[in-house]
Design goal:
Radius of gyration: 22 Å
Distance between the termini: 61 Å
Largest sheet: 7 strands, parallel
Mean pLDDT: 93
Helix content: 25-40%
Length: 472
């Protein structure tokens, strides 16, 4: 049986390390026909890669590139060269096995990475079907160029279209069985996908480019069963639904919650995306009964004009209604706003702060970032070209951000900083990563007080004390 080594190159630890879900799903698809091993470089930055290759002697090596940079306007960290130095070069120095690239960052910049890393093959978009098909062709001498979404180092063009993998065939990730999950357990969550694709058209987003505009949902009974099995092995961990938006399309999130409730699971859940357009008391009641302890809500703005400009599918009235439901459900929530998009002015910024003051609980944290990362193929990219912020020859691999000329970077940062000083629950971009000292104190408070609240609320308690206040 031939061997496949899958390599996780994501070493970012802030705000927490992310388990390589995609690689584990690919491993689940390949393992019936290949011996598969995952090398997780998250915690050793590739130091053990040479030994792993020497010991396993793979016939093929797949490398996942998740992020190109950390999207930090003030002090951006680019991962391109560290990945080449710590992962790609050691692979090339250790083996002649074909190098196959993939992952979300690769899918945004496929031609660039193929050339810069000197890869043999690359897979655009989701890789379960394409990876298996590619290996089958390489094993049997088939025509690789005929596989949709596969690039070769010699190809002049490729089919830049998505290959829809049937969601009912998506394997359980079994992350804790495929790699050492213990380093993730204390600081991270166990990721679960309920769907792929996104029908919305936010001007800056790349989800559609990678997963398509059509929702493809997993059967709720399979989602609940995956959680049941993982919880049986791991005990009490937090499961995180990592979809672009959890409650789209309408009805699917409710069905997932009902299935978890039907199985009688006692689990802790969270999700990164709630769409205000589809929020309802029924949804949040089901979420609480299923075990949700925290959610993220990412409206990006609360200015009516900016909601329209950013391509959001909800209005300010929808957003206010969602905020009301969230508060009535007493659901701990982290809110995320991005300031500086096309058309942003001082007036539109203050419209968002008015919403924060009147609609968001003082016990909930509000993350505020400035500038929108420009990615190729997005509406924002076209706007940045029109406004002269980037040129046609800019490949955008260096961190490029759009900030509305009507307000400018320095004035925008000043407004955000000034307004955060009177709002302890508002965390500006320059303070989004807690200091090691604050994290240690938060951990101490949680242990001594046996706190089960989300970590962000413990951090908020400390932040309120810095302001000379106590959080109610």
């Amino acid at each position: 049986m031939k061997k496949v080594l899958l390599v996780n190159t994501n070493t970012e630890q802030s705000p927490y390390p992310v388990p390589p879900l995609g690689l584990c799903l690919i491993a689940g698809v390949l393992e019936n026909n290949y011996a598969v091993k995952i090398y997780d470089g998250a915690f050793d930055a590739g130091n053990g890669l040479h030994d792993a290759i020497d010991e396993f002697a793979p016939d093929y090596i797949g490398v996942s590139i998740r992020n190109i940079d950390d999207m930090d306007l003030l002090d951006p960290t680019n991962y391109i060269d560290p990945i080449r130095e710590n992962f790609i070069q050691p692979i090339r120095n250790s083996t002649g096995a074909p190098l196959i690239l993939g992952g979300s960052a690769f899918s945004i910049f496929p031609e660039y990475f193929m050339t810069y890393y000197g890869a043999d093959y690359g897979i655009f978009g989701e890789a379960e079907a394409a990876f298996a098909h590619l290996l089958h062709c390489l094993d049997g001498g088939g025509d690789v160029s005929a596989i949709p979404s596969v690039l070769t180092k010699n190809s002049k063009k490729y089919h830049r279209r998505l290959t829809d993998f049937p969601m009912e065939h998506v394997p359980f990730s079994n992350i804790d069985l495929r790699l050492d999950y213990s380093p993730y357990r204390a600081r991270s969550s166990y990721p679960v996908q309920t769907k792929r694709g996104c029908s919305h058209r936010c001007v800056y987003c790349t989800y559609n480019c990678i997963e398509g505009y059509r929702y493809r949902t997993r059967p709720p009974e399979l989602i609940a069963e995956e959680i049941r099995q993982a919880a049986g092995r791991l005990g009490q961990v937090t499961f995180e639904f990592v979809d672009s938006t959890f409650n789209d399309p309408p009805g699917h999130a409710e069905a997932v919650c009902r299935e978890i409730i039907r199985l009688g699971l006692s689990v802790r859940l969270r999700t990164m995306g709630i769409n205000p357009c589809n929020a309802s008391p029924e949804l949040f009641g089901l979420m609480r009964d299923a075990g949700f302890a925290q959610i993220d809500c990412t409206p990006d703005t609360a200015s009516p004009s900016m909601l329209a400009t950013l391509g959001k599918n909800f209005t300010l009235a929808d957003l206010k209604n969602a905020a009301r439901i969230i508060r009535e459900a007493d659901m701990p929530t982290m809110w995320f706003f991005i300031f500086g998009g096309p058309g942003e002015t001082e007036e539109t910024v203050m419209e968002s702060f008015e919403f924060i003051d009147t609609c968001i609980s003082a016990k909930d944290m509000v993350h505020m970032t400035c500038g929108m990362r420009i990615y190729p193929g997005t509406v924002l990219h076209r706007r940045a070209l029109e406004d002269g912020m980037v040129g046609t020859d800019d490949d955008l691999t260096g961190a490029r951000f759009y900030i509305s000329p009507a307000i400018g970077k320095e004035r925008l940062l000043e407004i955000i900083k000034t307004n955060s000083l009177s709002r302890p629950n508002c965390v500006p971009v320059m303070e989004t990563t807690p200091s090691p000292e604050m994290m240690r104190e938060a951990i101490r408070m949680r242990e001594e007080g046996r706190l089960t609240e989300p970590m962000f609320r413990t951090l908020l308690r400390l932040r309120y004390r810095m302001f000379g206040k106590e959080m109610d």
